[in-house]
TrEMBL record:
Domain of life: Bacteria
Keyword terms of this UniProt record: Lyase, Pyridoxal phosphate
Post-translational modification N6-(pyridoxal phosphate)lysine, affected residues: K258
Name assigned to this protein: Tyrosine phenol-lyase
Any one Gene Ontology BP term: aromatic amino acid metabolic process
Cofactors named for this entry: pyridoxal 5'-phosphate
Gene Ontology molecular-function annotations: carbon-carbon lyase activity
Location of the Aromatic amino acid beta-eliminating lyase/threonine aldolase domain: 47-423
NCBIfam families linked: PRK13238.1 (NF009709)
PANTHER family per UniProt: BETA-ELIMINATING LYASE-LIKE PROTEIN-RELATED, TRYPTOPHANASE
Length: 458
């Protein structure tokens, strides 16, 4: 008989987690002002808030920590990281940062100015925040199929070329600093972008003289989907596909806490020396010297190993298969989720799940709170709270989808945990008709409100 699939690793250390009562969880939510970000980690049984910096490092990465070079300038660990990044991406200039949003801050300080527009595929929250805080505008050019959860388009992260060209035609070139391709596209459900689409976006952008940059937090997962779903790519290695991906861009930002397999870190990688020199000044101002930029030498050493491991097929197959396992369980139970299942998370459609909760009462946040009350599982809202208010009108922006994201940390939970998550959500689904009221805001900051917003029951 054929042997069943087994993970390409074994567990070396475990961490105890506390299983609370429903009464405890309801009290903790009240104390947290119904914001899941405000919960203590000790009050969470299974934490799916994010896959950013929450995974388990390998023995090779822990070994690399011990050999990190903490020199302020010219660190050996920086050289190791630079060589690894250039090998995988082809970009020769590297600026480390303490995480992905810091990379955005540095790069956008060079490239984005008031009145600019930045087209792309469903910019994530911090990306949009860094654009809008500079009084510029993010324009979503994602294909329409991305917003139909039942459409099985294999590359729902793709950019619609007609939408993109309309942006290029309707705005002066000097007001379009770059086109941004997010891989995979988090806000549309962890959906990948095809090589064919990247190549076409690059060709169109070159025609108009517009640079192309990648938000690359989950680039390896995107490469895996290209290998599995795109014609002619099945026999190529992940590293070969990655090299081609980045050949269609002028640079990248990276949150290394995702496909770098580390708990902290990020970077900018470029081939343009002029942009590199300008960004270097902002790195020194905001982060640190250009050969550490907010990262300890040991963390750069662990990241160099992590990038190598994350671009191997066996690891990616294990990681994405677990996400797919959970997604298929939820589909089996009739739960409305974004299909096909994305790379780093399963996304539940809260509008179909909780049809009685009005959009003004934040159905995705309501569903996330119900899942936590049910089983101590922390998720995150990818909906109206995250979409924030329009900078000009201060009215709520209502995205096409109201999603609850179940982000799966890498190499952290077992499939028994996935079964528990699926059963808990099934229990909530079976009592969905009883959930008719949501929540209202009692306090919020000016921007990026979902991190710190305070709510009460409506």
């Amino acid at each position: 008989m054929n042997l069943p699939y087994a993970e390409p690793f074994r567990i070396k250390m475990v961490e105890e987690i506390y299983q609370s009562t429903r009464e405890e969880r309801e009290q903790w939510l009240k104390e947290a002002n119904y914001n899941l970000f405000n919960l203590r980690s000790s009050h969470v049984y299974i934490d799916l808030l994010t896959d950013s910096g929450t995974g388990a490092m390998s023995d090779r990465q822990w070994s690399a920590l011990m050999t990190g070079d903490e020199s302020y300038a010219g660190s050996r660990s920086f050289e190791q990281l630079q060589q690894t990044v250039e090998s995988i991406t082809g970009f020769k200039y590297l600026l480390p940062t303490h995480q992905g949003r810091a990379a955005e801050n540095v790069l956008f300080s060079v490239l984005v100015k008031e009145g600019d527009v930045v087209p792309g595929n469903s910019h994530f929250d911090t990306t949009k925040g860094h654009i809008e805080i500079r009084k510029a505008h993010a324009i979503d050019c994602t294909i329409d199929e991305a917003f139909d959860i039942n459409d099985l388009h294999p590359f729902k992260g793709n950019i619609n070329l007609e939408k993109l060209e309309e942006v290029y035609k309707s705005h002066p070139k000097e007001n379009i600093p770059f086109c941004l391709i997010t891989i995979t596209c988090n806000s549309s459900g962890g959906q990948p972008v095809s090589l064919e689409n990247m190549k076409a976006v690059k060709a169109l952008s070159d025609q108009y003289g517009i640079p192309v940059f990648f938000d690359s937090a989950r680039f390896a997962e995107n490469a895996y989907f290209i290998k599995k779903r795109e014609a002619g790519q099945e026999n190529r290695s992940i590293k070969e596909i990655c090299k081609e991906i980045f050949s269609y861009g002028d640079g990248m930002t990276m949150s290394s806490k995702k496909d770098g397999l580390v708990n902290i870190g990020g970077f900018i990688a470029l081939n343009n020396e002029e942009v590199f020199r300008k960004a270097s000044n902002f790195t020194i101002i905001y982060e640190g010297f250009i050969t550490y930029g907010g990262m300890a030498g040991r963390d750069m050493a662990a990241l160099a190993v992590g990038l190598d491991e994350a671009t191997e097929f066996a690891y990616l197959e294990s990681r994405i298969s677990q996400v797919e396992y959970l997604g298929n369980k939820l589909i089996e139970y009739g739960i409305p989720v974004q299909k096909p299942i994305g790379g780093h998370a399963v996304f539940i459609d809260s509008l179909n799940f909780l049809p009685k909760v009005s959009r003004e009462e934040y159905p995705a946040q309501t569903l996330g709170l119900e899942i936590y009350k049910e089983a101590g599982i922390r998720t995150v809202e990818i909906g109206t709270l995250l979409a924030d208010r329009d900078p000009a009108t201060r009215e709520n922006r209502y995205p096409k989808l109201e999603l609850v994201r179940l982000a799966i940390p890498r190499r952290t939970y077992t499939n028994n945990h996935m079964d528990y998550i699926a059963a808990a959500i099934k229990n909530v689904y079976e009592r969905r008709e009883e959930i008719a009221k949501g929540y209202k805001i009692t306090w919020e900051p000016e921007i990026l409100r979902h991190f710190t917003v305070q709510l009460e029951k409506a």
